[in-house]
């Protein structure tokens, strides 16, 4: 697999999963973002994900609505309003970026136009994520790829569009590309998550694969980790009962630490597939070859003359055939642990 780097983090086979917490959809300003960043850092995550958007330029029709769920049912709100709530001034973004650095968090963001891409370059962003809605906006993809920053492509849309965007990045000399599997829905229904596509994405693109979770709870992230994803993105909200899109499916600040610890424990448990070629049994509980009866000097040993007893620190049981048919060089009492030197 092609290895990539986001900031100082290497992604690919043999490297820990990058844990990124999405707060771009749930903060309400610089102070709100700072509080969420504190929680992300204290919880031990690697990165914070934002949405550096210009809603006025992006939305040609401001009447469009988006549906989402809260604990008391289905709701909808203006897409324009939802995006506008996430906007910060350039100075606001500089403050947030500076705070990420102070906390040791990677800064990843989704831009909406060339100007916001320029802003991310100016901020020293660690990676640019192309939203699902823009995966066929090839001029935007090309502009982002030319920055040389790592690119995360959302694969939720048509496969041919993802392929073309990936090729555009490569054509611009940008090999730091990840494909992100991101199911639809706020929240996503279990039957619509399709985790089984993760290994297919990896085999097709031979690059790191991420999983952006829009489901309730955390279990789908752990299942994705079992499929060897290289990055996990989960939304964090100060209060998931908030009546706005993306809050209901989020973690709350106090849950981040356990989420990160569980991911790291599962990674440790995944271990190394080569372990199957190494004995994991203590020699004391294996068996060695012993004399099952008294054997006289000059007697030819047969299988019926042998027994197999613990510990396995003498002639291993799987080597008994090396003495069957050979003659004893000395008298051997019953119960003696045998060695090849006892036979000629």
Please characterize this protein's 3D structure.
With 344 residues, this protein is α/β, with parallel strands linked by helices. It has 2 domains: 7-273, Alpha-Beta Barrel (TIM Barrel), CATH 3.20.20; 283-342, Type Iii Antifreeze Protein Isoform Hplc 12 (Alpha-Beta Complex), CATH 3.90.1210.10. The chain has helices at residues 30-42, 55-58, 79-84, 90-103, 114-123, 138-146, 159-171, 197-205, 219-226, 256-270; strands at 4-6, 9-11, 18-22, 47-52, 65-70, 73-78, 106-111, 127-130, 151-154, 177-181, 209-213, 231-235, 288-291, 306-309. The strands form 4 sheets. An 8-stranded parallel beta barrel has the order 3-4-7-8-9-10-11-12, surrounded by 7 helices. It has a two-stranded antiparallel ribbon with strand order 1-2. A two-stranded antiparallel sheet has the order 5-6. Strand 3 (18-22), helix 1 (30-42) and strand 4 form a beta-alpha-beta unit. The longest helix has 15 residues, at 256-270. The two termini are 54 Å apart.
